[in-house]
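Reading is simple: each integer encodes one residue's backbone shape. An example follows:

___
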Amino acid sequence: MDAAHRTVLVGTDGSVSSFTAVERAARLSADTGAELVIVCAYQPLSGPELDRARDELGTEAYQVVGSAPAEESLRVARVRAFVQGAVKVQLQAVQGKPVPVLLQVAGACSADLLVVGNRRLRSLAGRLLGSAPADVARKAGMDVLIVHTT
């Protein structure tokens, strides 16, 4: 990472894989003095839609239950970032789908580098449902670091 990177953005969904990306982004931030912005996208659901999501997503369903899981994920991510030496850390829980949220926040905070984990990048689920790392890499107008997290 060069001196042009003043703001590093990383997404988390509360998974172990995403926390690995947070830790890598935090080390980069600590090494360069860049601000670290950690964002968690969430999509609140209720009623039958929530039940259907729980059935389809199984252990991934935590991503769709209000902002509380997002806020908790961000709290954990902040601790992990501080342990890695990051000093300037900003947290944002934003309602919406992960890729549009990451790109929106990246633009709003003038991020120079967007860090994502490689989860679902090469999986069948990623090919069928889409992969946030692949989508971000295609659509971002900035440097993207895809961290090997799986």
